[in-house]
Amino acid sequence: MAIQAQLYSDNLGFPLVSSQDLMENNACGFNQFYFNPQQQQQQQFLQIQQQQQFQILNQKNNHILMNFSTTGHNTNSNQTVLFPQSLACQLEKQRLEIDQFINLQKESLRLALQEQRKQQLTLILRNYETKAQLLLKQKDEEITKAMNKSKELQDFVKRIEIENQTWQSIAKENEAIVLSLNDTIEQLRESACVLSTNGGAVGDAQSCCDVQQMEHNVQASQQLSLETGNEEQQTRKMMCKSCNCRKSCIVFLPCRHLSSCKNCDPFLHSCPVCRIEKKASIEALI
């Protein structure tokens, strides 16, 4: 036994282990890896082969040991010379078988590791693919939201531009109305000045009639009648066209007619002169 252990240690480079240890550890610790059902079946088949091979090796070892023990009691000089040669051949044969078995196990281990690495890479790629799809979906949603927001802003800018143009046109119209009203007010002031001047002339004519000669009375009366008629006509024009009893002081828009007094203005919805619908009214300071 000591010679056999020494030869195994010298030829293989590691101490001998029993077949039971090899079977429990599945020849280099194969039970530490994860296999799918097909790989497990292959592994079981390999284990059966290993058990058969180890049984054969054990039988051979036992046979050699029995021969060695038998020859130990019946030794002679010729058998002592032949025994080392026979033992060396048997050990060399067993060494080759063990090397073949180890190579087979190494190849199986390599294939198992390769398959496991392939499965791990496939799982990692699937995880990254799922995460990439989620990220792409989120980015697509963000792009859609940004496009909708941009469209809303563009519509808002267009509405602001339209409102700006509308207000500019309204401002221009109001400016034109103000200028027209200023002209109308100036005309009304001039008319008021003319009326006041005519009124003073009438008073002077009446006072002069008392001191003038009788021959001028007819001419003065005729002139007074004409001036009074003009004054009445002008006063009639200045009267409210709704009540005809108060002086007109309200200008209707957009027709710009001075045709209503302040009291009648709230009740009128159209101009009394042209019947155009009233949009606004302004009091004229006369």
From TrEMBL:
InterPro entries: Znf_RING (IPR001841), Znf_RING/FYVE/PHD (IPR013083). Residues 111-138 form a coiled coil. Residues 240-275 form the RING-type domain. Transmembrane segments: none annotated. One of its GO terms (molecular function) is ubiquitin-protein transferase activity. Keywords: Coiled coil, Metal-binding, Zinc, Zinc-finger. It comes from the Eukaryota. This is BOI-related E3 ubiquitin-protein ligase 3. The gene is LOC107793036.
